[in-house]
Design a protein that fits this description.
With about 120 residues, the protein is mostly helical. The chain has helices spanning about 10, 15-25, 40-45, 55-60, 70-80, 90-105, 110, and strands spanning about 1-5, 80-85. The longest helix has 16 residues, at about 90-105. It starts with a strand and ends with a helix.
């Protein structure tokens, strides 16, 4: 349901948030995605799985507070972007519009550095 991609702040010279704002201004619904890793969400930290308690028998020592996923941390904190897959169901022109918007944002990235 999503096309996830990596945003390289160093290559673009702007933070992910400025990139996604600029793409949205161009009509492309890019978002920052999860800003907190899934395993750090309350449902996992508190093991609040409702009636789904099978882990208690199979993994009684399950503890997401000890999980360390540095790549996931980087993706959530600044590298990851999402594009709804429905955008990719359009015509060739629709795909070109996404590319053209990204090219325009890149071309004008210096203007986005100070905003």
């Amino acid at each position: 349901h999503l096309y996830a991609f990596r945003f390289d702040t160093d290559a673009w010279g702007i933070p992910r948030s400025r990139f996604t704002e600029a793409m949205q201004a161009e009509g492309i619904p890019v978002s920052n995605g999860y800003t907190t890793p899934l395993y750090k969400q309350g449902v996992f930290q508190e093991r609040a799985f409702g009636p789904f308690s099978g882990y208690r028998q199979t993994h009684p020592n399950l503890d997401y507070s000890t999980v360390d996923c540095p790549v996931c941390e980087r993706v959530c904190s600044g590298e990851g972007c999402w594009l709804p897959q429905t955008v990719l169901l359009g015509s060739r022109q629709d795909m070109d519009d996404v590319v053209d918007a990204a090219a325009k944002v890149y071309e004008h990235r210096s203007e986005l550095q100070s905003g």
